[in-house]
């Protein structure tokens, strides 16, 4: 299990790279750099997830019924700009122009840990989403019935 937690604000450099927080960059129980996959996410965010987790998703998707249009469309869209990345020695990864355009990211980014994956947002969109959630957080929690 991964433990990506916290919210960080960074700037893209001139080459379209962002700095991944140090505690997100190494494999669990290892000093080796983590390999990641960047892809389109939900809500106009980019998803950065460990390659190992991405491969689990690929295996599940590969078993889906090709006769179901929604599954084909989901798979097609998810794979559209999926890219493997490894942070460089400074902890940066390059985000493709297509993904930056998809997420409407120009210069500033929010990196938000989501336990098993990381979201990369345009700050204004992230702040708006958090404001929406804040107003209904108790109701969402109740609907999810997370207590054991």
Walkthrough of the structure:
The chain has 6 helices and 8 strands, in the order ββαββααββαββαα. The protein has 148 residues and is an alpha+beta fold. The chain has one domain: 3-Layer(aba) Sandwich (Chemotaxis protein chec), CATH 3.40.1550. It is globular and about 40 Å long.
What would the keywords be for this entry?
alpha+beta, two-stranded antiparallel ribbon
The helix/strand order is: EEHEEHHEEHEEHH
**CATH superfamily heading:** Transcriptional regulator MraZ domain
CATH T-level fold name: Chemotaxis protein chec
Strand order of the largest sheet: 1-7-8-4-3-5
Helix content: 25-40%
What characterizes the major β-sheet? Answer: 6 strands, antiparallel
Terminus-to-terminus distance: 20 Å
Q: Roughly what is the average pLDDT, rounded to an integer? A: 89
Based on secondary structure, the structural category is alpha+beta
CATH architecture: 3-Layer(aba) Sandwich
What is the approximate shape?
globular
Weakly predicted, low-confidence segments? none
Number of helices: 6
Radius of gyration over C-alpha positions, nearest whole angstrom: 16 Å
Report the β-strand fraction as a percent range.
15-25%
Return the CATH class. Alpha Beta
Number of E-state strands:
8
Please indicate the count of domains.
1
Task: Summarize the SSE layout with pairings.
Layout: E1 7-11, E2 17-19, H1 22-25, E3 36-40, E4 46-50, H2 51-62, H3 69-79, E5 83-85, E6 92-94, H4 97-102, E7 108-113, E8 118-121, H5 123-134, H6 137-144
Antiparallel strand pairs: 1-7, 2-6, 3-4, 3-5, 4-8, 7-8
